[in-house]
What we know:
The chain is an alpha/beta fold. Helices cover 50% and strands 16% of the residues.
Amino acid sequence: MLDFQVTDGIAWLTLRRPAVLNAINEEMANIFCCRVEELESRSDARVVVTRGEGRAFCAGSDLRELAPLSADEAAKYELRFARIFSALDRLPQPTIAMLHGHVLGGGLGLAIYHDFRIASATACLGMPEVELGWIPPWSVGRLAEIVGFAKARWLLMTCSSITGAEAANIGLVNEAVAENQLLDQVEQLAKRLAAMPAEGLTQTKRMLNRMSPLQQFEWDVAASEAFRDCYSKPEAQKCIADFVARKNRH
């Protein structure tokens, strides 16, 4: 579910559930957690890149795994994802999300927890949770910090999807390039960062994280509580039941 390799100072984390567009389930998140813990002490890894196998970076949380859970259980389930992915902040290495295809919901949330985001110009980014009846259960504060409240309000409340090129225009991603240039662009940035003195990068990352009020975990906790309240409502339950029924027919 998660391929892990370190090559020439770059650690590559590859999400490997291509049949479901790399939707995040508990097993994938647990493996990701173990790899992040390992990377904290890997001196041979100078930069960390997360990418997705197949047609997408990540289409979000696996709703089929979420569907049978109660509202309390679902909120705890999602908050654990937030804890796992926010651990990227603790890594001494700079982190890059390499985005292509669908980058939706929790997939965009995962990307937001990285220091940098490089996208295919044709990637599709968005947070469709409100349309399903609930608030994104994590990463809302970080989204607002990255793009500002006005743009975050638009993305979250209208459930608008945008291209990678549009995401670059609003600062949601750092760069957008043609899909056939994406790997080269990510490798260039990763190699440039890997060649820099590690301590300067680490201390700068640590200082910026401390200075970021909307990045603090309390906002993920608050979002999880709001998600719990939404998830218990009939509209949300109908949406998730309809989603599972559609998937089971295919």
